[in-house]
Amino acid sequence: MPGPDRAQFQTHVRDLSQLLDTITPDVIAKADPAAATMRAYLASLVDERRRAPREDLISALVAAEDEGDQLDEDELITMAALLFAAGFETTTNLLANG
C-alpha cells in the first residue's frame, strides 16, 4: 500500500481485528464497513497495478503464477488485505507490548 495512504486504514484495521477477540453486534457494525472500504481501495489498487505494474507486492501478486494458475480478483484482494492488516496489527501490538 502506498505510504501516504496507510494512515487512513489504521482505524479500519483495528475495527476488523476486533473480530478476533469478541464478536458482538457492535463489533460487526464497525467491521463490516471497514472491510468494505479496504476491499474497495485494494480492488482499485489491484486494477492500477494490472495496468501499470511496479516493484511492489501487489504487482508481484498480480503477476504470480503457479503451473498456469493465477489468483483471481477476490483471492488477490483478500491476500493483500490479510498481509496489510497482519503486518500492521502485529507490528503495532509487538511494539506496544515491548
From TrEMBL:
Top-level taxon of origin: Bacteria
Transmembrane segments: none
Family according to the record: Belongs to the cytochrome P450 family.
Annotated PANTHER family: CYTOCHROME P450 YJIB-RELATED, P450, PUTATIVE (EUROFUNG)-RELATED
Name of the protein described by the UniProt record: Cytochrome P450
Species this protein is from: Paractinoplanes globisporus
